[in-house]
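Structure in, sequence out. Go:
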């Protein structure tokens, strides 16, 4: 006969380890996966189809040249940002505590790419108010997903 695993939390509450996840975990997990999938698509297409993809997206020659000049260390930051976020979203949906690590790596990747862009001025079209707002949204979402995963781990929703 199988016995249920019983855990005692730091606040003294007893948990069977099989509690249901809150509804918002599924909403955040699915929405974050969709959001991060857009970033993964953009990253993949930029690297697989390069200039052709960027021009299809309406990028000018100076923007295409700027992207082509991004060094490997900044590209690695972009990769960690994108793929860490995808992994974090999937791990969040799987209720894994490793979602925290994945979202942490994603945020670190965003920071690395931000350091590069701050030190290597992008063309004006990349620095338009709309583009800047979108870049800040990326940073905010990455930070909020890490905070959310930390909260879910602290509440022992993530195993």
């Amino acid at each position: 006969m199988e016995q249920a695993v019983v855990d005692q939390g730091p606040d003294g509450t007893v948990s069977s380890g099989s509690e249901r996840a809150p509804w918002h975990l599924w909403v955040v997990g699915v929405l974050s996966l969709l959001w991060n999938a857009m970033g993964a698509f953009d990253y993949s297409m930029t690297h697989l189809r390069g200039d052709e993809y960027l021009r299809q997206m309406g990028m000018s020659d100076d923007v295409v040249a700027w992207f082509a000049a991004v060094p490997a260390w900044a590209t690695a930051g972009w990769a960690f940002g994108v793929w860490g976020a995808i992994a974090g979203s999937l791990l969040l949906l799987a209720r894994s505590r490793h979602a925290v690590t994945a979202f942490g790596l994603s945020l670190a990747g965003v920071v690395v790419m931000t350091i590069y862009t701050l030190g290597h001025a992008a063309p004006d079209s990349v620095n338009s108010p709309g583009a800047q707002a979108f870049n800040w949204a990326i940073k905010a979402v990455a930070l909020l997903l890490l905070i959310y995963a930390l909260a879910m781990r602290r509440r022992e929703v993530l195993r």
